[in-house]
Amino acid sequence: MTVKTFVDTNILVYAYDRGAGDKHAQARRTIGRLWAEGSGALSTQVLQEFYINVRRKAQRPISISSARSLVADYMAWDPVVNDGTSILEAIDAERRYKISFWDALIIVAAQKSEADVILSEDFSQGQKYGSVRVLNPFDVDL
Question: Is pTM beyond 0.85 here?
Answer without folding.
Answer: yes
